[in-house]
Amino acid sequence: MTLSEKILDLRKKAGLSQEELAEKLDVSRQAVSRWEVGSAMPDAANVAQLARLFGVTADYLLNDDYASDGDVPAVKRTDAAARMWIRRSVALCASAFGLFGNFFIYILSRFIEVPVPRVYYEDGKKWYEWAGYTGYSYRWFVEEHKLKIIVIACWLLLAAGLVYVLLNTEKVKSFLKKRRGIDLRRKK
User: Fold this and answer.
1) Has this prediction a pTM greater than 0.85?
2) Which fold does the domain 3-69 belong to in CATH?
3) How many CB atoms lie within 10 A of CB 10?
4) In which residue ranges of the chain is pLDDT below 70?
């Protein structure tokens, strides 16, 4: 796609007439018309204004090889970095949710008394006696209030989020690539 085709396409997508675009760029309507038919080229200042106005890069406008702004290598890197940032943020939020969920249950277990067994050993066997003993215990609080699935889900969220964040750092990725290379060399 040529510069003239890109200007025409972007102007139509923005819903602007040639006259409205000319006003925004402080040029004549005839100049915009000449750019769109390809008989003239906008100068560098106008290319920069066009890029800002339409929200594209000047590289996209000037390079005929790029069919869209997403084809520009710098834009691809920026988009990939933004997607990675979003994934890491979601993973960290999941980890935080898991951590705070377990912490909240732990705090509750310190304020709410539950039946707690007295543990004793007889003839090498472990015995539990439930005769009226109460206390503050995370384990028995979870058992008493049937929170085991919630606790497991919170721990899994915490672990999954941390594993995702830690395994997607550049140092770990480069280490794993080196390890794979070493392993492949040993097999040969």
Assistant:
1) no
2) 434 Repressor (Amino-terminal Domain) (1.10.260)
3) 20
4) 66-79, 181-188
